[in-house]
Amino acid sequence: MRTSIERSLALRMGIAVVALPVALLGFVAAIWAVFVGLLLFFRMSLSTATTVAVVPTVGVVLAVAFLESYGTSMSDRAGNATPVSPEDEPELHATVNRVASMLDVPKPTVAVSDSPAPEAMVVGTRPSSVRLVLSRGTLEALDAAELEAVVAHELAHVKNRDAAVMTVISVPTVLAVGLVARFPELSRRDLTTAVALAIVGLVGAVVTRSIVAVCSRTRELAADKAAAEVLGSGAPLASALRTLDRRIYETPSEDLRDVRSVSSLSILPLESRDEPLTYWEEAETEPFLWSIRRPLSRLFRTHPPTEERIERLAAAESDRAADHGTTRRSR
Q1: Is the pTM of the predicted complex or chain greater than 0.85?
Q2: For 2, which of 6, 94, 188, 259 could close a Cys bridge (C-beta 3.0–4.6 Å)?
Q3: 3-state secondary structure of 184
Q4: CA dist 283 to 218, 248, 269, Å?
Q5: Is the dihedral of CA 137, 138, 144, 145 positive or negative?
């Protein structure tokens, strides 16, 4: 039988997957409505405008998708990590071999970056071409059991094909953000249309990004669960999360800024907790826009809070122990 945790994860993922295409359709429909309104402004009939507006709508969506496809890819983001051979890192390769065998996935290319920030991620959408990226900061912070748990978490993403899933469901957000980014170009041709499309893009980005964030948090919890199951215990992963969380807190802000682009891919978000001291903080006041920044950051969070993940691992461990005890008593 499925546990309550499994049902909760499945429900959250199901709702997000259903909501995302609805949001995408709404986003495209809003672009179409902008062009319909523009054509009506030029005194075109409603029936003609609704038909003609399809052409620029499709053109804008395809153009943004084409331009954004030249953006930085996940593989490029991990380009500063150097592949290491079994001769260079025998213990690391042995761990990766063992975990890959447990999860029945192809062994990934193992790469190590020189960053002191605790990076740990998999890059690549196909299991056969995945690269496992770990930083020196991670390798130095973790003991053998914790490192094995982190590798299990990352390869669980490979097992679940999370990179491919997240790439597909991120398309609406990429289109929305790309539409906003094209505002300077569009404004030189028609400012009114550019403003209207930018508003559509902003709304679309907020809605779709929040849905994608739900999916991302759900996939992180699912990878935690899979890692705990394949290793027979969630304790090593819980310990690793605590260790890496503390390491992030101790890492200088400038080092975290250097890896900000891969924050959403790593096992924990690579974000500084140090807030700069400002006039507003000295005056013990908070501007209105700052007051809405925190809720928005929670809305777009790609990872569940570390404490929540640890608590879920502990709860699963308790359930496993209880089930084991029940099985022994029934014999």
Answers
A1: no
A2: 6
A3: helix
A4: 39, 29, 30
A5: positive
Strand pairing class (131-135; 109-113): parallel
pLDDT digits (tens, 9 = 90+) for 8-63: 666 666 676 677 677 778 878 888 888 888 787 777 888 888 998 898 888 877 77
Residue 217 in tokens? 């948090």
What residues are annotated to the active site?
A: 154
Domain ranges of the chain: 72-76+162-330
Q: Is 140 helix (H, G, I), strand (E, B) or coil?
A: helix
Contacts of 53-61 spanning 24+ positions with Cβ under 8 A: 57/28, 57/31, 57/32, 60/31, 60/179, 60/197, 61/28, 61/31, 61/175
Query: How many Cα neighbours within 13 Å face the side chain of 231?
Result: 30
Q: Is 234 helix (H, G, I), strand (E, B) or coil?
A: coil
DSSP 8-state class, residue 45: -
Selection from 186, 293, 196, 305 nearest residue 245 by Cα: 305
Can you tell me the distance from the alpha carbon of 239 to that of 241, in angstroms, rounded to the nearest whole number?
5
Task: Return the C-alpha torsion angle 103, 310, 20, 11, nearest 10.
Answer: 80
d(CA 227, CA 95): 13
DSSP-derived letter for residue 121 is E
For residue range 48-69, list pLDDT tens digits in order: 889 988 988 888 777 766 655 5
Structure tokens at 169: 């469901």
